[in-house]
Amino acid sequence: MSAPPHTLAPTAWQDAAIVRIDRVTPHMRAFEFDAPRMAPHRAGQHVDVRLTAPDGYQAQRSYSISSAPGAGLQLLIDRIEDGEVSPFFHDVAAVGDTIELRGPLGGHFVWQPADGGPLLLVGGGSGLAPLVAMARAWATAPEVPVLMLASARTWNDVPWADELAALEARHAGRLRFVAAITRAQPGRAQDIGQRWDAARIGAELQRWGTLPRHAFVCGANPFVETVAQALLAAGVPAPAIRTERYGG
Hints:
Elongation Factor Tu (Ef-tu), domain 3, 5 helices, globular
């Protein structure tokens, strides 16, 4: 019996094989990797992906890990039409292909059940990826109250919307999941048909009946700025708010 491979440092590049590809939304796919030399990750961390062209040109991007700790390595990749990396994953990459990765990286935007709560998760589009990892980690020990707020054009554009709704139903009273549907009619009574703003976020916090001990916000720059300011206005202490942004 062969010995298990040695774990590499998070900054070291390693080859990882794609073992599964799932269509999560019309524009997002989830890629699962076999990365046996990668150290265990914490919910909220990310990995760097590097692609090398035949002429030696390299393109590198960072993607948040969406899987729960101990549940393998899953990345959510949104298709960016003029991007250098995401079109490759959507149009070319296949199960069995080997990709260069390094990680897990990041130590500020992380949460584990031992950190406690109440826990607030707010994400827009693919910014839900690290928050879904946190929700999945929470589900292994659902002892603290969680409020999860998502934003997307339609229900079908919310990554893992049905999984999150099922998680809410399974843990009724412990997890509340609300989606802001910005370009269609919301399909559930608790969802809203507009963007998140200070009034709506304040109303959800009032309905929740508590302020978070930990608040994680992830999405495009304007979204994160709006949500962070709304949380401050609602009385959430600044040290409790952690943000992660992507361009656009």
